[in-house]
Amino acid sequence: MKWCPTYKRGWHTQRQGAWRTLVDKVKAAKKRGSLTTPVQELNFATYHLLALMKLRNYGAAVDELAALGDLDAPHYSYDEYPSVYPGKSGLFSFCKICLTGCPL
Hints:
Helix content is 60%, strand content 0%. By secondary structure, the protein is mainly alpha-helical. The chain has one domain. Helix 2 runs antiparallel to helix 3. The longest helix has 17 residues, at 38-54.
C-alpha cells in the first residue's frame, strides 16, 4: 500500500501526543482532497476519532463515527475498488476493528 506523506506526518504527530494538531491535519487533508483511497479515508477517520477522544471532545467523536455509517457497507470493501486494490477482497478489517473497539 502506498502511504501518502500526510498520513505519515499524522502518524508521527499522534505518536508525539499532539492531538489538537492531529485534528487540524485531518481536517486540512480532507479539505485538500488528499485522501485518495477508501483505506486512507478510514485511516484518517480512525486517527481523527482517537484524537477527538483524547481531547475529550466526545460529541464530535460520536458525530465522526456516525458519519462513517455502517462499517459493513459494500463501499468499505476491497471488492468495490478493483482498480485501486487489485487482487484483494473482503472488508477493510483493520480500520473496522479499530473503530468498532471505540468506547463510544
